[in-house]
Amino acid sequence: MSAATIVPTRLRQHARFGLAALALGAFSVFGSPAEARGPEGIADVAEKVIDAVVNISTSQTVEAKGGGSNTMPQLPPGSPFEEFFDDFFKNRKGPGGGSKGGDNSPPRKTNSLGSGFIIDTSGIVVTNNHVIADADEINVILNDGTKIKAELVGVDKKTDLAVLKFKPPKPLISVKFGDSDKLRLGDWVVAIGNPFSLGGTVTAGIVSAKNRDISSGPYDSYIQTDAAINRGNSGGPLFNLEGDVIGVNTLIISPSGGSIGIGFAVPSKTVAGVVDQLRQFGELRRGWLGVRIQSVTDEIAESLNIKPARGALVAGVDDKGPAKPAGIEPGDVVVKFDGKDVKDPKDLSRVVADTAVGKEVDVVVIRKGEEQTKKVTLGRLQDPDKVQAAVKTDEPPPEKLVTQKALGLDLAVLNKDLRARYKIKDSVKGVVVTNVDATSDAAEKRLSAGDVIVEVAQEAVSSGEDIQKRIDQLKKDGKKSVLLLVSNGDGELRFVALSVQ
């Protein structure tokens, strides 16, 4: 995957047909995954739904970059063309050494093309957010070529979805959402869209994978298909053989920008919920639990007596969030939410986001090896979601007054000078790390000077001696690792498991 690129499938209009011919020609060398004979029903599906699929045309005003069309191209040093282009552009410069017409080129219009589909005959269209992002004007183009100006109803950047509306000039055909949860690997699907601005184009393939996480967003759960999807297909529908929309084509993986049979669609179960809220509120109102979570590694699972490793580890609890009054604490591992199993943090993020604000749900957590059920009334996730990341400052030389060495760490009791040196808030309690052995497990787990160890094996510590005593006891108990609760200077917590061997 490192040689490939994850590409949003919107098409900048200047690519046009020369690029399309080149990309499609290159693709044919490898052979299309859809060359095999498909089921008989594909033509019936296409005929039934083609008039509900639309092209999306957008225009945007952008600032011209210095030099405009007279900017010298970037050439590698020593290129045989370097001298030629140098002389050419020098001759085109006007008075004062600037390019003819000056460097202050006026703003220019750019056009983009994508796809969409009609879900309501009143003129409601679903597409991708990246198709219409930053657009000054949006137009919907029907299958017969009719072009109508559209308005934006709402967008959700986290799932890359948008809803548009327009006034129908004539009766329309609409499509409905199917159940993407019922898809099976190998099921046939049909993609319709506007690749390379060619207009309504039908391709077919199979479902290659489900619930695919490609780390493009917080709620990744894509349908992967080998149906040919190219630039310009963004926002177009993926149909099952009943003619129901089971996904919105969004991304491809490609080293060249053309289809190699790896495309991704947002599943209809996600799309339908997002679209309903955008139509009703013009925005997303997602559920909020009020916790920071991280993965349960094998080492962490061993430390917490969880077999097998699973769930989402609560690293921090928001003081103003719903989890706090429900009794959820750092160190709890969420394994079930509202009756749904939680295998990893992404599972929890998705199911919480999809749950209605204000709903009371049962949250099953494992605490000190035992399951407990907590009742939580969900709050609302504020948008935009402010994702906080721990930011490390340039670290000064290691603190010389070290009271204890353990686990490859130099540890010191927190005092006023150390708080000032590492910018640690007064509310943070524990033992400060002043140096990390570069060859240690702690360094590999990214502990660094200025981190504060708050708990060891879920017990509070205030000195290096406390930490050493806990480690010695764990070794006697036959434990292979120790679980640390670590804070940064701002008080943001995370769990780290280190080897004690």
UniProtKB/TrEMBL annotation:
* Entry EC no(s): 3.4.21.107
Localization terms from the record = Periplasm
Q: Which residues are recorded as binding substrate?
A: H130, D160, G232, N233, S234
Instruction: Return the annotated region ranges for Disordered.
Output: 92-112
Recorded catalytic reaction(s): these are: Acts on substrates that are at least partially unfolded. The cleavage site P1 residue is normally between a pair of hydrophobic residues, such as Val-|-Val
Tell me the GO molecular function terms: serine-type endopeptidase activity
SUPFAM superfamilies, per this entry?
PDZ domain-like, Trypsin-like serine proteases
What is the official name of this protein in its record? Probable periplasmic serine endoprotease DegP-like
Q: Which organism is it from?
A: Bradyrhizobium zhengyangense
